[in-house]
Amino acid sequence: MNLHDGRAKLSDSAAKLRAHWSDTQADWNDAVSRDFEENHLAPLEPKVNAVLRAVERLQEILSRVEHECQ
Fold it and tell me: pLDDT for 42-67, tens place per residue?
């Protein structure tokens, strides 16, 4: 798996998690679910976004290095 594939897989997985959580909230909407969302799910999104940006930047750098080494 290359960086592009890993980035795509992470992005897709995050989107699926958001969709499944949205479906789950239809049946589970109490203090425990809100706590779970606040303390476990909400902190993931900015971290996943940061990783996606970092992987994109790393891919740009690696492409440039590869080009310069040819």
Answer: 999 999 999 999 999 999 999 999 99
The whole-model pTM stands at 0.83
Residue 21, token pair as written in the block? 């959580």
| Annotated domain spans of the chain | 3-69
Give yes or no for a contact between 47 and 6, defined as CB atoms under 8 angstroms apart. Answer: no
Neighbours of 54 (CB within 10 A): 11
Q: At what angle do helices 44-69 and 3-25 cross, to 10 degrees?
A: 170
d(CA 29, CA 27): 6
Say whether 37 sits in a helix, a strand or coil: helix
